[in-house]
Write a structure and sequence with these properties.
single chain; about 260 residues; Rossmann fold; 8 helices; about 15% strand; binds ligand 0WE
Length: about 260
Amino acid sequence: MLLESKRGLIVGIANKRSIAWGIAQSVAREGARLAVTYQGERLESRVRNLAEELTDPVILPLDVTNDDEMDMAAKTIQEQMGGLDFMVHAVAFALREELDGAFVDTSREGFRIAHDISAFSLTALAKRVVPLMGESGSIITLSYLGGERVVPNYNVMGVAKAALEMSVRYLAVDLGPKGIRVNAISAGPIKTLASSGVRGISKMLAFHRTHAPLRRNTDQAEVGDTAAFLASDLSRGITGEVIYVDGGYNVLGTVFPPS
Ligand code: 0WE
C-alpha cells in the first residue's frame, strides 16, 4: 500500500459526491489514517456517516473562515494522531450571484468572500499544519482551468483559483526547505454539490465528454488516485506544480471537428 503509516487531513467533504470524498476513499484504500472535517453542524451527520467507512478516523469541525477553529483542528490532530503527513484542501465558495452574468459586475464583498474561502484558506491551513509535519509532508489543493483561462460564468472563482495556484508556488518555495511539497490538481468539470447549482453545467459536462482527448468526463475516483500519488513518496520530486486530471481537455486550442 502506497500510504501505509501515513496520516492525512482532508478538508472539503460535504457529501458522497464531493471530490474530497473521492480523495478520502483513494488515500484510505492505500492505507492512510484520516482526519476529516465538516463545515457547520448542518454537515456534521453526513460527514460522520461517510466516515464510518474509514478506519479510526478523527472527525473535526472546521470552517476555514474561523481562525480559532483552524487552531483547534491542528491541536486536536497533533493530540490524536501525533502529527500529519499530508493535507488535502478541497474548499471553494463564491456567492451564487457572482457565478452568473458578467465578471465586471463582481461586488467587493463577493470578491472578498471568494478569495477568503477559496484561496487564502490554503495558506491559513498550511501555516497550521506545517508544525505537525516534521521533516516531510505533502499539501494538495484543487483547482480548475477557469483559474488560467476564461470560462463563462466562472467569473470571480477564476480569479480566486489564479490566486490559489500562485499561492501553491509561493508555498512550495517557502516550505520546500522543510521537505514539504505543495501541489494542485486541476480537475475537469465534475457533477458535485458545488457544481450542480451552476447554470449551464450539464452542457459543459456534455462538451467535455465529447471533446476531451479521453472522450469522457472526469470522475472523483481518478482525482482521488492522483491525490494518492501526490500524497505518496512516488511524487517526492514534484512541488509547486499544477497537475491536470481532466482527460486532456486543457491541451486543446480550439474546437475539433467531431470524430
Ligand atoms: O470550482 C468550482 C465550483 C465552485 C463553486 C460553485 C458554487 C455553486 C453554488 C463555488 N461557489 C459556489 N457557490 C454556490 O452558491 N467548479 C470548478 C465547478 C464549476 O463551477 C462553475 C463552473 C464549473 C465547472 C461555475 C460557472 C461555470 C463553470
